[in-house]
Structures
1.
Amino acid sequence: MTLDWSVVWQHRDALAAGTAMTFALTVATMAVAVPAGIVVAVLRMYGPPPLRAAATAYVELFRNLPLILVVYWAFYVVPILTGLGLSALATGLAALSLNVTAYNAETFRAGINSIRRGQAEAAMALGMSRSQALRRVVVPQALRRITPVLASTWVSLFKDTSLVSVIAVSELAYVSMQLRAQTFRVLEMLTAMAVLYWLLGYPQAKLVDWIQRRYQVTE
Amino acid sequence: MTAGDAAADAGDRRKAGGATILRYRDVVKRYGTFTALAGVSLDVHAGEVVCLIGPSGSGKSTLLRCTNGLETLDGGDIEFEGTRLARDERGLRTMRQRMGMVFQNFELFPHQTALQNVAEGPRTVLRMPTAQAERRAAAMLAKVGLADKAANHPAALSGGQQQRVAIARALAMEPDVMLFDEPTSALDPETIGEVLSVMKALADEGMTMVVVTHEMSFARRVGDWVAVFDAGRIVEQGPPVRIFDAPQTVRTRDFLGHLGWAG
């Protein structure tokens, strides 16, 4: 077997573009899923009963569906049901966001629950409304406490974006697979892909460790 | 003791002439089948320091928490400055702004510095510009002797310092009455004194205070009026001299006796 690693270098621009798309998807998904996760968590905890039930149903649905199924479903079924024709990118982003929002909502709920009741009471004793107490006192502390968990979710998400390759979003996995098919250099391209994911993912995982140390809660 | 008896005591109630800030009438609070307050009546006049004493679980803290609506009533009434305590969230918020509360466990906001903690109420509730709120906060910290700790987070302060910051935080709202819920119970013995002396200074300025406390010497020395709780009722209330030197009821004598109070 002869190996030809030059194909990797030849297609460096395509791989770089795929990597950029992977990062963009990760950032965009988190940009949606962090605020949306807070909203869902707050609705689930403090919302009026119908919204509370809806938020719970949402979380339990998307937490327990395989992400790849959600991706397929959003791509093939949603247009049939709604007549909406979103681009592959928008569909992929939506599927990732729906999934990660559900996880983030549970993370936030745990974080908010971990802040003892006296904190909200002290805020309300100053004359704050329940939502002011949440915004100014409870959520900022909860965020600090769950930063390590969010960071782990980030690293998982970075790798899970590869699942939207099945609907032809040209992120790193899709680009690598395409190149593999075009060049027939299976081992080289898959190895290049593994190396790229690892080189990008490892520093992020180390950053998570650092964040975990940095944000240890002191009271 | 009934409301009528309390009125009869007005003769030896030094500040009874002041406006009634708080009036409790037959206040009842239940938690499931447990009755925490079984009909409590008490008046608090402007400028008075009213100390609530009695064994743990006798309802003192519950009465304080009912006062600013952290707990809802199951019976009776509380009037604050002549108005029945609001039952709705918005009305309660307006009343809470005029009642400062100090908690046993301080409940400072750990993600904020001492200065930010004290400025939080004026900033968020009174919508004061940050600079102005922080000026007020700095003045309040100076008042409790912690001007030099403004930039510290609560974790970097001793228990006594944290409680003084908590007092400053409540004062920053310029309340008409201060509610203290066992403010020294979570403190090391050596820092209790600094908190009590801040409270004494407040009392000397004429602040109206309701203090749940196990510090009998503070109640005796600083209190204008003392109410003795037992099993959800006030068994005796009167000026500290009478409560401590000539208690009228067996329950009061027992309670003080258990604490080793010589009388």
2.
Amino acid sequence: MKVTFPHLGSMYIFCKAMAEAAGIDYVLPSPTSNRTREIGEYSTNESVCLPLKIILGNFVEALEAGADTIVMIGSGPPCRLGLYDRTIKIILKDMGYDFRWLTIPGMFNWQALLQNREETKALRSELTGANIARFPFAMLMGWKKMMWCEHLEKTAAVARATAARPAEVDAILAQGLHAVDEAHSLSALSKAGRQAAEELAAVRKTERPALKVVMVGEVYTVMEPSINMDIERRLGHLGVIVERSSYFSSHIRRGSRLDRATLRKRQKMLDHARPYLNFDVGAECNVSVAEAVVAVQQGYDGVVHVYPFSCMPESNAASVLAAVGTDFGIPILPLVIDRQEMGLRIDTLLEAYVDIMRWRRQGHIL
Amino acid sequence: MRVGLPSELLSVAWMPELKEAISRIMPGIVWVHAAQGKAPRPLFLEGDVCYPLKTMVGSCLALLAEADTLLLPRIVGLDGFLMCPNFRGLPDIVALNARTIGLPAATAIVSVVMEVADDRHIKILAETAAQGLREQCGPGNTTVCSDGNTCTATPPAADAGMARDRDISRSIALIGHPYLLADGRLNNGIPDLLRASGVDGILCTDLPFAVLDLLAREYDYYAKKLYFRSAREALGAFLYFTRVRQPAGIIHLVPFNCGVDALLRIEIESLHKKMPHAPPYMVIVCDEHTQHDHVVTRIEAFLDIVNEHRKI
């Protein structure tokens, strides 16, 4: 059995840690590239959203590299992500691939549990007692690594915006994530994480006041830098702190429904969208709007809204966010992500956006 | 009282029943489905939303300017399955645009959450909607108006066009969202084109949903059931027209950028490839383009294929 999983930000470190700690063979998909995207595009149609195309490309590349078992994240309605596994399985079978499939339920209910039981039937027979016995530790190791990754990413987002040499922050973050990825014990993990955090804190700073934006939108495009044109890093280099609420751990907490505080916080957050949306449109739509309203209240300089072309909930959010921007006079940058070779134009766009925010802060634009 | 209800929604399942139930409670209502004036241009409507949603927002804004109030149900679920997220956000998007354009305040829209599975739900929903309409206009305003632009086009009752004894072997089946099949603005006039070519077009909306749902159920897998109603309708219709009664060909009408159909097309195309004796199947993506010739060319080519296929 050789398992594989899609790329989603630093999620691969979590998945790798789980597989390694449990003693299960795995194939890490190649980093998402133009080829990955093209595989997805050629095998689907124009209205399929980019996350599906990329995930499909990740799986094809992993199967070509010897994987035989695909582990996919699930979701519930009304987002299409809840049907991705159904569709991707059809495409891969039509392409002639032989594989086994396991969906990690996005929502834990009876149907999901029965499906999980069915899908793991064959896999369970291949797991040894040792594999199963190591699972609790594997879960702990995976979770701890994920928490360190997210902590480092959040710290880097702040450090980058004020650093004298932002590229130094990128290098420390990359090294830190690599060290976290390579750690094989909890003590080694803590040491690696702490060291990277200390290095980030020690980076030489400038006196330039940083701008602050919140990045909202569809989960996959917010979390995957190869899809969102690395917007977080690019804005950081221009002196902007990018905050986001979408992290892998927050979605696990919410999906498992075990953390009541997270659910309460989300419900409270949705109330902020009320003046604009009186019903939960689905997926992250209302959260995107709510986070933008909260950003206004908390004095943020702008909102970056990223979502894939043809995303139904987020295109509703985009319409509403345009009204939020008009009502509060806050600059909102919508980025609809699809196959586009923006090259250096993305930097020009971001520079103009940052200029607008700086002028606004200085009182030049009301 | 003149109550606006956009014509696009009339073809959605349960909507005629809702309208009728409200009319029984408030006989003074004059329904207005199409505005006389031009639709104002919405200010807040993302450019990449699907064409039917753009059209519906436009129709609602135009109706707001002409009717006393607008009934715009928030269609969440029908027959136990979900509608696409755009229907959930539609009343809010319309209200936002109305407020900004300077049309009557957002309170002129009566929006009830529509989750309907049977007549009992319709009755409750109609009472709620009627209450909202009364509050909106006040008891004194519920008088009959004589100059209403009432709708005469009522969608056919389920199964009306698909009687068992009807020979459909020379017909072309059209599958897709009900509003797409019913509205010439949204479907590029394809049903008319077929008629003009002497071909009998049959619609999947002529089949009862229960029949289509039963067929679509075969491909459900625990949590992986098609939870969008329109997807079940289209998949069920495809299976009906390939397994139960075969027409000469099947045309699947899809709105550009429809998230639901984007996935469903993959599934249907895959099924069609594996069916040795299935009738020819074609997808036409409908958009707001104005050039008509390419649609005509595609229909002509498809009919040629259908004719050749029948010879085989």
3.
Amino acid sequence: MTPLLIAQIVIVVVVFHALLLSAAAMVWVERRVAAALQQRMGPTRVGWQGLLQPFADVIKLMFKEELRPKAADWFLFALAPIISASCAFAAFAVVPFGAQTTFFGLLGDPLKLQVADVNVAVLVIFAIASMSVYGIVLAGWSSNSKYSLLGGLRSSAQMISYELSYGMALASVLLIGNSLSLTDIVNGQSGYWFHVIPKWFIFLQPVGFLVYLTAGVAETNRAPFDFPEAEQELVAGYHTEYSSMSFAMFFLAEYVNMVTVSAVATDLFLGGWHGPLLPESLGWIWFLIKVGALLFFYVWMRWTLPRYRYDQLMAFGWKILLPLAVVNLLATAAGVLYFGA
Amino acid sequence: MTFFYVFGAVAVIASLLVIAQRNPIYSVLLLIASFGALSGLYVLLDAPFVAVTQIIVYAGAIMVLFLFVVMLLNAPHEETEHDEKIHPLRRPGPMRFGAALAVSLLVELLWALTRGNGEPNAFGEASVSSVRTLGRVLFTEYAFAFEVTSVLILVAMVGAVVLAKRDPRAHT
């Protein structure tokens, strides 16, 4: 066991638990921010300022009875939440969250703050995002309930539609970054224009960023695009029939997906761990700040905007967002050709 | 080499189980498993781009559509018992034709397998792994085939739209 291998294992364990904790933190943030936006208190009783509320929720969920509809397909019913949760965690494996570091000289060789440095990282994220739809679709189908089935069908239609725009937004960043590796893309965003404006791709790709963010919200099934769940019309959509920890796994997957989408947006558009004041080795603090800001934006949007109508969602995806993304991609390609990468 | 046999076994067994299923949803899922194993084989061949593309295009996009259609048609089980006598494909003529096709496929497969020089690493070093090289070859050497394929898919798409389009006179 070389020190580097041990450090790598430590990173895997830390990232996994950080994601679990971030999901718990997001539950708290979501409830507190929602409460603040609606002029109520939110959870304040469990722990200081209600900080232990998510853990109380998890304990409650663990002791709930695991129900399964009699007519459900038991194998797929059990498999669906596992697919959802594992896809959510797997996508984060290729996301870099800090510059190479030796931990203040603790290690001989510098270590990348990333679980796996894949040279096609952007495509891996896209591939795993496209696989995560199966969890929802299978949950909807195997529950053998009309609400679940409608939720599953809506979700597959929605994710197929928005995946295209999502991919186009990724592709336009790839053209500028001139690489498929997230580490290279982040390193391409260091430095400043005119000593003031950071060289983040959001300034080169404002349209791409908006398309990515919109498609990202749709991909994670968050309001205002939360049609697979849509409490008022579908009870809870694809997870109507789920209870106890299976339900918790869907819940977990949703929040981890949010974190992953925000982290990828940070790497692609917001300069990753690059930022002023802090040295390179503490860049992960900037990374956390940026991801946190995006996550807050997510929550803010959910409690501000009402849900679209379903046909509006499909029309928006195909008739506005996708053409916009295609035009943006073509303009970016022309720009890269003209100005050089 | 161990990984090769693991992925290969998964791919073959999953593919066989696809046609052994009564429930089309399980067939779709097993096909996805088979695609996943294939993509693992591509990784072993030092072609991560092809591996990821396999997942994105086949497992991620096409199979979702398959699943979508199967769910929409709501056909949980293939009807076998009373279907057997009337189904035109179950008559002796088509079945013989199918057997002939299967035999010819088997012969082709044997021919293709014995033709290769048997070296496991037939791909040049880093020739497939680099996306840059792949893109350049695709858009220069194979540009014609590439464009023709895209036109073919476009034709199929237009055809599907035309077929699915509601006749305005029929619904009055």
4.
Amino acid sequence: MTARDNARVAVPPEPGEAAPVRLPPIQVRTGAGEVAAFLRETGGIGTGDFVPLTFPFRWLTLPAIRGSILRLSGGEGFLPVHEAQSFAYERSLRADADYILDVEIQSTEKPPRLILKMTVSTVQDEICARLETILRIVRLNPETPA
Amino acid sequence: MIEAVAGLAPPDWPNAGDEIGAQSFGPFDSAALTRYAIVSGDDNPLHLDPAAARAAGLAGTPVHGMLMLSCFEPVIMGWRRDLFISRFSAKFLRPVLAGEGIRVLGRVLRSQGNPRPELILRLTARGPGDSLVILAEAAVLHKSVTPLG
């Protein structure tokens, strides 16, 4: 088993919980222009191949991941609200480099939440970072007055 | 697990209780939220559409949690540039609305010296009225510990 395989060993769901949804691996790139734009808007410091700690979060908005989040959130009439976030880095990311994402999404009913676990690895299969994102699912009330 | 290469803490390695100077960010107006949505891809209507925010029970569009969380790294690295942030976790306790700002501050909770210099930092973001909006903790290593840090 590779390091990535070990990282992807699923924790069994709690009784009454659905099995986690595991997405196919996704290749991403830390484009230097995207990193620089991200830094400008987040008050970040750093130059050269520096990639901000929170930059990988943006990959959760990729269509394959976003679609799964919206589907598991309940679709129209529900919105995910960010409740907690963690990062664990084994090595820094570098700008203009390719990485592989492994994503697993666990949904819970009580309370309604999505727990996303993402592992970022190099294309040589070395794990760089692990992220955990907890989203609370909020039911919208369109009747709320302005 | 990080491959720990023995490092040497510099003479000015912080001690438990040392403060990390406060730094203010924002106010984050709706234009800032739109720009962050573009660079991050997080265009959740909750942050951009007042009607969606109202439907979620909020008085206004909330600032992206990750925009506020992005402010912590410059605070840590502005305090000391010889650190590698190995772990960072945060809970979003209450929303900060468009037009409001935050103040990020912290202190050293635990300090470990040689052979693996590591600090545990307690960090917070405070919003209007000094309300606690984010509670965070970071584990940081001296850069000498990490081969690729």
